[in-house]
Amino acid sequence: GAVVSQHPSWVICKSGTSVKIECRSLDFQATTMFWYRQFPKQSLMLMATSNEGSKATYEQGVEKDKFLINHASLTLSTLTVTSAHPEDSSFYICSAVSGSKTQYFGPGTRLLVL
Amino acid sequence: SQKIEQNSEALNIQEGKTATLTCNYTNYSPAYLQWYRQDPGRGPVFLLLIRENEKEKRKERLKVTFDTTLKQSLFHITASQPADSATYLCARAYNDYKLSFGAGTTVTVRA
Question: What is the DSSP code string of B51-111?
Answer without folding.
Answer: ETT-SEEEETTEEEEEETTTTEEEEEE-S--GGG-EEEEEEEEETTTEEEE---EEEEEE-
